[in-house]
Amino acid sequence: MDQIGVLSYALTGYQFSAVYNMLSLGIASMLFTSIFLWIARDRVLPKYRLAVMVSATVTSIAAYHYFRMFDSFSHAYGMNADTAVANAGGTSLDFGAAHYNVGYRYIDWLLTVPLLLVELVAVLGLVKAVQSSLLKRLVPAAALMIILGYPGDIHSHLFGLDNSVWGLLSTIPFLYIMYVLWVELTKSLSSQSEKIRKLFQGLRLLLIATWGVYPITFILAMGQTGAPSASDVVSREVGYTIADILAKCLFGLIIFSIARIKSAEDDKAFAAAEGH
Amino acid sequence: MDQIGVLSYALTGYQFSAVYNMLSLGIASMLFTSIFLWIARDRVLPKYRLAVMVSATVTSIAAYHYFRMFDSFSHAYGMNADTAVANAGGTSLDFGAAHYNVGYRYIDWLLTVPLLLVELVAVLGLVKAVQSSLLKRLVPAAALMIILGYPGDIHSHLFGLDNSVWGLLSTIPFLYIMYVLWVELTKSLSSQSEKIRKLFQGLRLLLIATWGVYPITFILAMGQTGAPSASDVVSREVGYTIADILAKCLFGLIIFSIARIKSAEDDKAFAAAEGH
Questions:
Q1: pTM summary value
Q2: CA-to-CA dists, residue B128 to A82, A189, A195, B252, angstroms
Q3: Could you point out which of B13, B126, B145, B262 has its C-alpha 20 to 30 Å from the C-alpha of A255?
Q4: Which residues in B have their CB inside 8 Å of a CB on A?
C-alpha cells in the first residue's frame, strides 16, 4: 500500500518529453477553452447560459488539474525549471521515491464527468421535471463509475479484488449511463429541430468514443504482470490527455454551438443581431 | 504551547496521498464553485444577488485557505517542489519540527461560518427588520462557537481547561443557533412557497449534518491519550474536507437554486426568459 503513485522505473528522455508536452497541451487547451466559454456565454440567450457556464466550469476544473499533473510529473522525473535534472538514458533519479500523483486524474473526473452530463442535458432546455429526473440518475451513476474505477487504476487490490474486477464493476454504471442517454433521452429529442438532433447525436457519439479511451488505456496499462511498465505509463498519459481534450474542450464547444443554434431558433431578433 | 500544530509522527505514503488528494479536491471544489457563483449571480433577480454573492465569498475564502493548507501540509511532510524529500516507509523528516498549521481551518471557519448563516437568511428575502434581528443573534453565536472550539482542537489546555471542556463550551452557541434556525426561523417560513419550504428544510438538515462532522471528527481525533495519532490526523483532515465541501459548495449551490426559483416565482417575465 505504500507504493501508491510511486514510479519506481525510469523514463527515457524521449518518453519524458512526450508526456511533458502532452500535459502542457492539456493545460493550454483547457485554460483557453475555459476563458473563451466564460466570456462567450453572453452570445446565447439567458436560458442556455447555465449550460455554457457548466461547460466552462468543466474545462476550468480540468485546467487546474493539468497544471497540478504537469508539476507532479515534472517533479517526479526531476526535469523541472528549478532543478533541471535531466533524466536521460533510462537512469533513475537521485532521490528516493519519485511520486507522480495519479489521484489528480480521478479527482478531476469525479468532478467533471457528472458535470459533462449536466451540460449535455441542460443545453436541451427540456421541461424542468424531465431534466431533473434525468440528472438525478445520470449524476450519481457517473460519480459511481469514477469511484469504482480508481482502486483498479492504482493497483490497490482493495478488499482483495483484482484490478480487472474493479474495471468490470465500473462498467456497470457506464452501461446504465449509455442506456439513459440512448433510450430514455431519445424520447425527449422529438421536440428538437432536425439540426439540433443531428448535433446532439454527434455529441453522444463523441462521448462514447472518448469515454471508451479510458477503459482501453486502463486495460493496456495493466500490462502482463498487472503492473504498468514505463511505456505503458507513457501511452496511458498520452491517451488520457487526448481523450480529455476531446471530451471536455471539443464537447464544450459543441454544447456552445447547440446553445447558439437553439437561441437563434427561439428568438428571431437575437438571430438577426448575432448574424445567424 | 510550543507543540501547537506540530506533527511529530510520520505518515505512510498512502496516508500522505489520502490527505494530499483530499486537500486538492478541496481547492478544486471551492475555487470553481466560487467562479461559477460569482458569474451566475446574474441568473437571479437583483434582490437575491447578495445572497449568491455571499455564497461565492464563502467558497472563495475557503479556496484561499485550502491553497494554504495544501502547501502547509505538503511542506510539513517534505514533499513539495522545493525540497523533494520523499517521506516513504514511515521515516521521519530530516528537518526539525514539521509544522502543519491547524490555524488555517479555524480562521477559515471564523470567517465563513457566520457568512453561511448570512446567505441562508438573506436568500429568503424576509422583511428587513426580521432579517436583521435573526442575523444579530446568529452571527455572533457562530463566531463564538468557532472561537471556543479552537483551544480544544489544538490541545492548548488554555486556562488549564481540558480539550473536552472547550468542546462542550463550543456546543452552547451551536445549540443556540439550532434553536434560532428550527424554532424562530420556522415562523418566517409560512410566507414561502411549498417548493422553497422543502428546499430550505433540506438546507437546514445539510447544515446540521455537516456541522455534526466537526465535533465527531474532533472527538475521534482526541484519541485515547488525548493526543492524536497519525491515522487520527488523516481521518480528521479527510472528514473536515468532505464536511467543508458539502457545507460550503453544495450549500452555496442550493442557495443559488433557491434564489433561481424565488426569482421565477416573483417575476413571470424573468421565468420565461430563463426557461423556467
A1: 0.87
A2: 56, 46, 50, 22
A3: B262
A4: 12-14, 17, 20-21, 24-25, 27-29, 31-32, 35-36, 39-40, 43, 79, 81-82, 84-86, 88-89, 273-276
